[in-house]
Amino acid sequence: MSNGDSLDSLFAELPELRAKGLSPEGLAKSLAELALQKTNTPSFVAFWVVPSHNQAQLEFYAESKSHFPWPQLLASQEHSNFLRTTIQTNHPVGPERIVWNSNEILAKTTPVICDNRIWGILEILFRPDSKTVNELFSEVLLSILRCEMELAKQKHEHALRTFANDINESSHRIAARLLACSDFPNLTFQLAHDAREFLGCDRASVLSIVYPKVRLEAVSGVASLDRKAASLVAMQSLIEKAAATGENLRYPLPDGNQLPQIIEVCEKYVDVSQAKSFEVHLLRHPSTDSPSDPASKTLPDLLGALLVESFHTPDFHSANDKIQNLISLGSSAFTSAWRSAAKTNSWLPFGWTRMTQGMPPGWGRHSRNHSKTWALAVGSLLAAGAIPLPVTVRCEGQLQPILRRDLYAPLDGDVVSVDFQHDDWVEPNQNLLVLSSRALELEQQKIEGELQTTEKRLLAVLSERLGNNSDSENNIRSAGQIAAEEQELQELRTSLRKQLEIIRKQQRDLSLTAPIRGRILTWDPQHLLLNRPVQRGQLLTTIADTQGDWTLELKVQGRNVSKLIAKAPDPNKPLDVRYTLATLPNESYRAKLTELAARVEWDPEYKESLLALAPTLNLPETNARPGAKVIASIHCGWNPIGLTWLSEIYNSLKTWLWL
């Protein structure tokens, strides 16, 4: 192939190479290899990076098929002197003859310029006897490579600057949101949310550390935490091990000597969390604080940890620039939160209150020992123990008539008649519904047919027995056989009659009547039931005696369950209940709590709940509506005001710290 054809073919394939998104060095190497392959002559192309003046490092080279030792030539003193000339002149050099080991080589170089400085040097070497690779072809090839590399380098530098600007803008926005957080829980939740969005991971978690204890503070996308969950317990164990080593962790673990404890805790966490890969980054006390600052002395080295996870990518790695910026922001935010809490005497994050000794003046300052102060303190203690405070349990429930019944479908069938409307009054045994069962009718017809056939056969056997002559030689069956058949048919007839009676009873049960006197509570029963199929056990309607007594069906939830059980109602001394109806919020009524459920139910939201019944006392009939929402307060006695407050604080702290 001629030089012109080689260049034309090279230009034709150039757009395809550009579309691959290669680095400047990769693009130039691919172009050089392609050009040398098309010329098919002994030649050599190299690219040298110039990090500083009078220095050059080989970045890549491409050579055609030949037995000439090109790499040895590059290391020779003659070639180094030639290359130094290009660096010093900053202009193309050659072609110039280089004599090495009795070999004569032609060399030509051209500098690659980026941002007004020399970035590298492109070089082509070939034998003088090469007829295809002449001076013009080498000059054109070097020009193409130089232009492509300079263009690709400019695009690469522009992309890096754009990426750095995006990171800086995102970092500024994250810093502004963290500074706007008013308390520590909001700060940790905001940090976890921003970390997931900023790093592009599937989940980010923030934990506080007071070595050797670790507490999970926030998980991105999760509003409430169940710290007893297996995955969260394993997560805290993982961060404890990382805090013990004082180093960041990355899973899958890199090759090398790893502590068995680290391997074990990482594998355990991966098993329970289903994460494919994760990174643990420790949040440390910023080293920019002045050593003479008293607050800096009491601040621990490890403040917290950031755990980023990927559930789909087994080799997820966060970008180094991004994670460094985020860790710096998180460490500064943790430090600011601790100092702010210390200055304002507010609650510090988990466990940090132990380190308040030695803080600047203003933290933990004791009041002067004056007699008025002591008198006020003693008086407050006496008042807390003497002044009673009512113990109440607040709950919600429904208002229901005590006497009510539900009607269910006895069999699968269709509703063919509905003889009542919503809010109708019905009397006991009044017809309400009629159902039709096609399967039951077919079964009845089948049994009636079998019964008729059996009776005809029985008559035939009786006739045969009466006309049978036992002395006749022509008698086919004996009297014993006829008697046995007659007995069998009689038993079959008895069984069929019993089956028919059962089916007729089931037919009668398809006509439903009112079990009590009361009011129909089902809305629009004609539209709901008429000509519609129903299944056995399906609720058809509800009847309630709204003129009789009413009761509250209350549901006590959470910590109130233990309060109510401790003051379980005595049948002789029922607990007072005051309640309001959602339909009449301005009216208040009274009831007596008489019965508690024998079993505590499990509620996913409140963890435990208890049902209670409280018959009403002064509820007007005109205000009663079945199923109306009730907001009730159960009076459970009196306790000293100090004991009541302390028990509430204790339960709140226990729930916050351990549950």
What does this structure look like?
A hairpin with a 2-residue loop joins strand 6 (203-210) and strand 7. The protein is flat. The strands form 5 sheets. The chain has a 7-stranded antiparallel β-sheet with strand order 22-21-25-11-20-24-23. The relative contact order is 0.07. The chain has 16 helices and 25 strands. Helix 7 (230-245) runs antiparallel to helix 8 (260-273). It has 659 residues and is α+β, with helices and mostly antiparallel strands. The protein has 4 domains: 3-160, GAF domain (Beta-Lactamase, 2-Layer Sandwich), CATH 3.30.450.40; 181-353, GAF domain (Beta-Lactamase), CATH 3.30.450.40; 405-465 and 480-542, no CATH class; 548-658, Elongation Factor Tu (Ef-tu), domain 3 (Beta Barrel). Residues 289-298 and 345-369 have low confidence and may be disordered.
